[in-house]
Amino acid sequence: MRAVRRFTVRASLPEPLAGLGALATNLRWTWHPPTRDLFASMDAELFNKIRDPLRMLTALPPERLEELAKDEDFLRRTREAAAGLDRYLTEPRWYQRRTDDGLPQAVAYFSMEFGVTEALPNYSGGLGVLAGDHLKAASDLGVPMVGAGLLYRSGYFRQGLSLDGWQVEHYPVIDPNAFPLELVTENGRPVLVEVAMPGGRDLRAQMWRARVGRIPLLLLDTDIEANDEDLRSVTDRLYGGDADHRIRQEILAGIGGFRAVRKFCELTGHPQPKVFHTNEGHAGFLGLERAREIIQSDGLAFDEALPAVRAGTVFTTHTPVSAGIDRFPVDLVQRYFSDGRLVPDVDVRRVLQLGSEDNPGLFNMAHMGLRLAQRANGVSELHGRVTRRMFSRLWPGFDEAEVPIASITNGVHGPTWVARELSALLGGNHEEFGHEGRTPGSSLRDGVSDQQLWELRRELREKLVGEVRRRVRTAWMQRGASALELGWTDRVFDPDVLTVGFARRVPTYKRLTLMLRDPDRLRALLLDEKRPIQIVIGGKSHPADENGKQLIQQIVRFVDDPAVRHRIVFLPDYDMSMARYLYRGCDVWLNNPVRTLEACGTSGMKSALNGGLNLSIKDGWWDECYDGSNGWAIPTADGVTDPLRRDDLEAAALYDLLGQQIAPLYYDTGADGVPTGWLAMVWHTLETLGPRVQASRMVREYVDSGYLPASRMVAAATDDGHQGALSLADYRTKLEVAWPRVRIFDAELQYDHTERLVVGTEVTIRARIDLSGLEPSEVDIQAVVGQVGDGDELADSVQVPMEPDGIGAFAATLRLPRAGSVGYTVRVLPKHPLLASPAELARVVLA
């Protein structure tokens, strides 16, 4: 028989154990070992099996709970843990100790997925795990953030394999009551958020709260009886469905998410955010809802509200290729916005302008995100450059370097990912492993020998081997094998063999199968008698990505070969729990995407924090962090246009590095069995990459270059009845009329012709300029001097302000900055105190 409905009954705790409830529901336990130890002491075997304190309380027999309620030592430790959590939640931290004027009282952070823990399966991969790490680091730093997203009743799919190695997806039905979530209620009834749908209908969502340390994470859930049947399924699964399903999710995430944050803060007294951070463009519609709020509350027009919306928005893009951007048919967007119910007082024509692109039939979510945000960034230095090039057409007339998209390199939450054994060995503060908590001038190596580190690395590798064997056996059982034929799984992998890890999503650009370009060379590396390697692989392909599934099948068919299956494995259902074993136990972390197509790629950071060495294409974060001594850079066949030829060349380089450099160094041990050269690289990695790859560093950068200036700009735009926003709106209206008629005449270079032009020669650049009614104070007039090539394009230029020099004339005096072929031009840019960048309005007049 099948149940017609499922529900979860939570444990009834004896009164002395009441404090366990708060400890189990606040997800700080995911990165706080003492709290996990407390729950493990209740039943170590059970806890090691389920790794979830809330489920632990439900699974323990009532008599065991009664026994613990009388255990004075356990009660003392429970009180201490509860008091420690309370201190963590209330004490001043880094953010509270800052004295900057204008720090925002709250920041709202929107993401389509959040990977906080496998105990809350609401993520698919790197984007969600990054969002989870962002919230955790913000909590540790005391940044007053509110997270907002959707709760997926089937989460992301669970992955299995068919007998022939094809990916098989299934979606387990989840009950939110079984997870560390609380339903947000008012007067005992669920709080509902509504967004209008076409045809006079409304989509309603209830709000669940997860406690991520100090951060409330709000997740919207449409599976309620108040919705029509088709609307109940809006939050059924992550990244599933057609364009209509997808736009409903993104409308709910942005507009509904904004309304949820407002309502939650109103109910709880949490400060209302004035700064809004969108992690990718999925929640970009929230900018329209913010405009509606200002229009209706303050009586402004849309163009007058827009400066305030933009001032408070930070937009992070993770997309290095245009194909990765969400686009919707324009007629679909019109269908949802044209009746005026979804965002009243916002004209659908203005909505469509915000998402316009070269293809007039498509609405571009990234373009809308950029147009509604005053601050935008990519997620590594290289990705920032790629993104500026990709979106440069939105700022015509500006060099790519001037496109107003910055770079903030992603980071990972050390306390979540670092093995506690390693943290203990190195004496690091588990909440800031790698740099904080150490005495200035001290070294991680103080008091720790190479022998100790090598023994610990082997211990972590041995744990990985045990997990690999367990998962390989389970995977084969699910594929239909019998227990009697699986004795060989007890001999899979060896804790004394060089171990390489490769685990990530499986789109084609990440090149899961690059290692298979020459199967014979790979076999030779795996089976080398003196210096063997073993490779553990994991990853999911999007259910609709047939090419990705074919790559998985190719790998599975190779690893199924009895000759190599003890040295190379594919582990299905890659998730956070598997990832921790891999990051901690692998000696080398492999990443071989097509260069510039990896935005950041944080998995290698997590490996590095555990003493793993990266073997990677110089893409994403590795492009800026590789220093020649912390791993290896796979040479790239730049300029080779044939993708098959490029793959052949880069695979050959990969084999050469593994066989000729990496394996020899790993197995080059002294009489004590310790590979001194290898460990020198490990120590260097821990010392130098530790501070750079932390999510705490990333969040600090967002505070300093995003949230703080955004908060100040919001104040400038909204104070005194939105006088700043009104001023900027008036200025933009004035530009609309004047700008097309602004002209630059007679730009000329003047200098003493009796002297030779050498570096440092003083020259004057003069020009006559018709500002068409604009005041000189309303524009920024610049002389631009730089090197020129064959096409007269300026490079490495310097900009010098030009001052009035008579009626309609302007001049700048400067010393020539460089030798060689030098050129100059003159340009006019908009100027207003509420502009964060000269390129912000995408307007420039060139000589």
UniProtKB/TrEMBL annotation:
Q: What does this protein do?
A: Phosphorylase is an important allosteric enzyme in carbohydrate metabolism. Enzymes from different sources differ in their regulatory mechanisms and in their natural substrates. However, all known phosphorylases share catalytic and structural properties.
Family statement: Belongs to the glycogen phosphorylase family.
Q: Which residues form the signal peptide?
A: none
Domain DUF3417: where? Answer: 13-120
From the UniProt record, list the reaction(s) this protein catalyses: [(1->4)-alpha-D-glucosyl](n) + phosphate = [(1->4)-alpha-D-glucosyl](n-1) + alpha-D-glucose 1-phosphate
Pfam families, alphabetized: DUF3417, Phosphorylase
Q: What keywords are annotated for this sequence in UniProt?
A: Allosteric enzyme, Carbohydrate metabolism, Glycosyltransferase, Pyridoxal phosphate, Transferase
Which organism does this sequence originate in? Answer: Amycolatopsis silviterrae
Top enzyme class, one word, equals: transferase
Q: What is this protein called?
A: glycogen phosphorylase
Q: Name any cofactors this protein relies on.
A: pyridoxal 5'-phosphate
Asked if Nucleotide-binding is a keyword of the record, the answer is: no
What's the Enzyme Commission number for this chain?
2.4.1.1
InterPro entries xref list = Agluc_phsphrylas (IPR011834), Glyco_trans_35 (IPR000811), Glycogen/Maltodextrin_Phosph (IPR052182), Glycogen_phosphorylase_DUF3417 (IPR024517), Pyridoxal_P_attach_site (IPR035090)
